[in-house]
Amino acid sequence: MEILFFLFLGKPLWMWLVFMGLVVALLAFDLGVLHKDDHEIGVAESLKLSVMYLSLGLLFSGFIYWQMDTQATAEYLTAFVVEKTLAMDNIFLIAMIFAFFSIPREYQHRVLFWGILGVIILRGIMIGLGATIVEQYNWVLYIFAVFLILTGIKMLFMADKEHKIEENGLIRFLKRHMNVTEELHGNKFLIKKQDPSTGKLKRYATPLLLALIMIEIADLVFAVDSVPAVFTITTDPYIVYTSNIFAILGLRALYFALDAILHRFAYLKYALSVLLVFIGSKIFIAWAMGWEKFPPEWSLGITFVILGAGVVYSLRRTSSKQQT
Predict the structure, then answer these.
(1) Tens-place pLDDT, residues 88-136
(2) Is 250 helix (H, G, I), strand (E, B) or coil?
(3) Which of 50, 79, 205, 312 ranks highest by number of CB atoms within 10 Å?
(4) Direct distance between the N- and C-terminal alpha carbons of the chain, in angstroms, rounded to an integer
């Protein structure tokens, strides 16, 4: 039993096992019970799932409080809210990828489910590397902070620019180096099909697999912003990883819930850019004020204010446009 108390990235192994066990149970319940058959997920079902994942993410803060302290709890909640909000930008991109490849709604959950498995592994690697670097070279946090400020400013000036999936070089690369069918084949990612030139059976990728690859790459790019953002909130790998994964677990349900009304949040990107600038600035504000750390409770409150203002502004602007 001593192995359960072995410290892994600063926390007892049993704490990591509890979290990973919960994640595995949720994924098994999702795929094995709720979605064992492909079907179109309606708004009502997706809203229930969103509430479930959101509630679990918030309830996990109770476990953080029980095992750690108030400051860690505030940091977890701030990181969870920031990750959840930054994921909104990812949802816009997911919707565009599905539209480009003409993926029917009944197969979209399958793509997102397998996508989340890749995310869990990739985020674990990135956060583990990040935690090791920050522990050895604390000044890296200042580089993260500057990067976030520059990213926020860039996002502010490029918020109106539309992504054009058809111009993406990765799609052209994949189609050039892989055998790809033009049409879907049910829920299959790969099929065996006769090569018209040789007559032999060859393995072909379907548009479903291309959509999965594009979503994984999109999340990797998204993580380049979001992981440093959380490291500027806390350097505790356990809080960074658990807040990341809980935020992303509900991403699929949130996508289906918001898919029909994504246009109402078109201006939320401005709030996200301000949020990134704020998160990046905290370390410099704390240094200028002579604080050991920017107060986590203030960080959580300011985050809610920025996001709340962004949501209200976006809903009002899109509402006035619909009326005109």
Answers:
(1) 777 777 877 888 888 887 888 888 888 888 888 888 888 888 888 887 8
(2) coil
(3) 79
(4) 67
Identify the sign of the CA torsion 96, 186, 110, 175: negative
Q: What single DSSP character describes residue 180? A: B
Closest CA to 265 of 57, 87, 109: 87
Question: What is the Cα–Cα distance from 224 to 123, expressed in whole angstroms?
Answer: 10
The pLDDT tens digits for 185-208 are: 888 888 888 777 777 788 888 888
How far, CA to CA in Å, does 206 sit from each of 164, 173, 197, 210, 273?
Answer: 21, 15, 19, 7, 36
Using CA atoms, how far apart are residues 141 and 279, in angstroms rounded to an integer?
Answer: 11
Specify the DSSP class assigned to residue 183. Answer: S
pTM: 0.79
Burial 148-181 (b: 16+ CB within 10 A, else e): bbebbeebeeebeeeeebeebeebeebeeeeeeb
Cβ-contact 164, 292 below 8 angstroms: no
β-bridge pairing 201-205 and 190-194 = antiparallel
